[in-house]
Structure formats: structure tokens, C-alpha cells
Amino acid sequence: MALVVQKYGGSSVSDAHSIKRVAKRIAEARRAGNDVVVVVSAMGDTTDELLDLAAQITPLPPQRELDILLTAGERISMSLLAMAINNLGVKAKSFTGQQAGLITDAVHGRARIVDVVPSRIRETISKGQVAIVAGFQGVTTDTNDVTTLGRGGSDTTAVALAAGLQADVCEIYTDVDGVFTADPRIVPNARKIERVTYEEMLELAASGAKVLALRSVEYARRYGVPVHVRSSFSGATGTLVVGTYGDRIDPNAPSGEEEQMEAPIISGVAHDRSEAKITVVGVPDVPGMAARIFEVVAGAGANIDMIVQNVSAAATGLTDISFTLPQGDSPATMAALTAVQGEIGFASLQFDDQIGKLSLVGAGMKSHPGVSARLFGALRDAGINIEMISTSEIRISVVTRADSLDDAVRAVHTAFDLDSAEGEAVVYAGTGR
Ligand code: ASP
Ligand code: MG
After folding, report:
1. How much is the average pLDDT of 142-166?
2. Residue 210 assigned to a binding site
3. pLDDT over 50 (residue 260)
4. Per-residue pLDDT tens for 316-362?
5. Is the Cβ atom of 362 under 6 angstroms away from ligand 1?
6. Is residue 146 part of a domain?
7. Domain for residue 129, yes or no?
8. Of the ligands numbered here, which is closest to the C-alpha atom of 151?
9. Where does the ACT domain lie (predicted)?
């Protein structure tokens, strides 16, 4: 029989009734003869509520204390879930991240897993019991303090445990039936993707698709963990995240080439509302200016995404440089740039947090010309202005006004024939918060 790691997100365990429902699924998987390890997130919007609570105490809580606070959310759900499973006559035990052997670095709030030593988990499943593990947390050996892995980090806990235990599959249970060609909350006739490569899923997650946390996909690719994204509310098979684009070519087909033509060119359309744009206006167009500006930006700890530099006006010899970054990194970055305005000699700074980013992702675009033209044409027909553009081998991203982002996503989804004929995708739960 198989060793299965199952992860249940917050919307799947939002109240006592949901916890009992999930417990039934887990008990069934165990009774079917599988070894079962479960990773669970905090109930519903608990993590956000704890953050709100901390903000009422102080605007800048110490990171160490914030981590201890947030890990409480997962302790509540893990213990309740273990109780519910025991109630069904199946033995289950819950463990904190530390007890489960999730060792991280010491970066509070976004710690990285450096090792997984799941001896207590192995011991538990070898006795035929279900092990429940609190997601999103670990311990740093530097100080023995509790750490958290960053928002959405329970996915990473699950994939890391699956890798550490050499599980057969890591099942990520959520409130939709899998990975869709766009967020079903915005595009109701989005299509479920049956199978997606690690590379494409990485680009989708990095471009704002929230169905899987980015780090969990990086981890899955590094260790070759097959990930199955599916709903805890239905029995439908979900989306398999496995392999590389080449694997999609059917080896039994008469000609590999033909099969590849049939593989979809585009996997999906992701969107992101969490970034802001800073424009440095009137930068002297001489060597070294971009280097100096981005040294300052990096020094402020900002993780920049897109960059655009205008052609300088010959008359003035001045240029404008715009870049995007997470909204949360903006205040420190604006302050750092303002401090060097005299030294660099730029005219002014503009800040804009009313932007949205749309990304079209698909491994097939490598070998298909005309994808950008079709994307830009769809936006033109919808009357949407493009402010910035960037590309990778398998992605094209554009920045638009935030309030036209939803329309842009729908227009592009239709233009690439991604709309499903089978009716609307179901969103079973969750506030999308
Ligand atoms: N509870 C944490 C969060 O809301 C971790 C997770 O859900 O994966 O971000
Ligand atoms: Mg959550």
C-alpha cells in the first residue's frame, strides 16, 4: 500500500463540522490500507485574525513573538483534527512542526526548511496510526526558537515531509477542484488542468496563482515529489504537478512531434494585485546610474520584479526608470531612494500601488510564434492599456491598471481558447482572503 501525505488548507477545516468531514476522508484513506501523514493549516482565516490582533497591540511586533503567535493557529486545527479521527476509531496523533522534525534557518516569518528529520512521524505510521502535523512551522537549531515559513507555508511543509518520508504522492486538498486555467473566482468558466509540469506551475505560482505556494513547487521539483492538487469537498480527481514538458509527448504516438503539437500551448493566465510601481523620474543617462539605483533598492531589501527604462530625450539627456516590487517592500524602498536623491541627481519619485499584473504561462510558447501578438491584440480589443511588459521562456507578463485587471484576465483567457464549454468551475469555500 501507499504512503500518502495529505495537506488540508484553512478553508477545508474552517469549523468543527468541516474538521469532522475531513477526518472522515483521512480515516477512509487509512482504512484503505495506506500509511497516512496529514499536514493541516490553521482554521479558516485564523492566521489573518492573529495578525490583526497583534497589530492592535503594536505596529511592529518582534518577529520571534509573531512566529510563536501564528504557530498557535495550526496547533488548534491539528489537535482538533486528531480528536475527530480518534473519534472515528482510527488512532491519530498530532505533532508541532518542531516535533515532526522540520528544521529551518533562523529567518523568522519566512524561514526556509534546511532539513527534515521525521523520526516521530515514521514511528507513528509504523504503528498504523495517522500522524497529523502542524503546517507552516519549524524550529531553528541556531536558537531552538519556533519559526514560520511564510504565508501559505503549509504546502511547503507537506511537500518537504513527502520528500523526507519518500511518500508516493503529496495530495494538496483545497477549496477548488485543482489548478485552473485562471482563478475561477474571476473566470467562472476556467478549465481544470489535468496535468502541469513543475516549470509551468513554478511560473504560475510566481505570477500570483495562489493555489500552491511558490516554495512548495520549488521543493517538489527539486526532489521530484508528485503533487496532486484536489478538492476536499468533492471526489473529483484534480491536477497532477509532475515531470517536464518533454514528458508530455506520448512515446507510443507515431510521431513525437505531432503529439507535442497537441499539447496545450498555454497552461493558464495568472494575476497578481500585490505589487506596486516606483518610477525614478529624470535620471541622468550616463553609465552606472541603474547600478546605483538598484544597489539602493537591494539595500532596502526589496525583491524587484519588472524593470523598464525609457529612451532618454536627446535634448535633456535624462531618462525615467520604473520597476515593480511587492507593496510591502515599498515604504522602505521609497525612503532609501529619497535619501540618495541628491547624490544620484534624479528629479523626483512616483509611487503607484494601483497596478495589476497579468501573466500568460505555457511551455508550448517556446516553439510557437505569435503568442505575444495575440495577447496584446486581446488587450487592445478589450480597451486595456499596457504599462509594462516582461517575458521569460515560458511566460509573458503585462502590467495594467488594477481596476482593469479582471477584465484583462477574462479577455486573454477567451482569446487563447481556454474557456471551458462544460459550465462553471466550482468554488466550494473560502473567502479568498
Ligand atoms: N496558516 C498559514 C497561512 O494562512 C499557513 C497556510 O495556510 O498554509 O498563511
Ligand atoms: Mg491559510
Report:
1. 97
2. yes
3. no
4. 899 999 999 999 999 999 999 999 999 999 999 999 999 999 999 99
5. no
6. yes
7. yes
8. 1
9. 278-354, 360-433
Residue 411: its H or E element: helix 405-415
Our count of domains for the chain comes to 1
| Residue 21 covered by a domain | yes
Domain hosting residue 27, numbered range: 3-247
* Residue at 292 is within a domain: no
Q: What is the DSSP string of 344-380?
A: HT--EEEEE--EEEEEEE-GGGGG-TTHHHHHHHHHH
Alpha-carbon distance of 150 to 251, in angstroms, equals 40
Could you tell me how many residues make up the chain? 433
- The CATH number of residue 23's host domain is 3.40.1160.10
Measured CA to CA, the distance from residue 409 to residue 369 in angstroms comes to 21
C-alpha cell recorded at residue 57:
497591540
Instruction: State pTM to two decimals.
Output: 0.89
Would you state the torsion angle of the CA atoms of residues 416, 420, 426, 427, taken in this order, to the nearest 10 degrees?
10
Ligand 1 within 6 A of CB of 157: no
User: Could you tell me the distance, in angstroms and rounded to a whole number, from the CA of residue 162 to the centre of ligand 2?
Assistant: 20
| Rg, Å, the chain Cα set | 23
Which of 154, 170, 212, 219 to probe ligand 1 with, by most ligand atoms within 8 A of CB? Answer: 154
Q: Judge whether 93 is annotated as a binding position.
A: no
Known binding residue 345? Answer is no
pLDDT confidence bin for 368, thresholds 50/70/90: confident
pLDDT at 250 over 60: no
Percent of the chain with pLDDT over 90: 85
**How far apart are alpha carbons 163 and 340 in whole angstroms?**
46
Q: How far does residue 425's CA lie from ligand 2's centre (Å)?
A: 21
CB of 47 shorter than 6 A to ligand 1: yes
153 C-beta closer than 6 A to ligand 1: yes
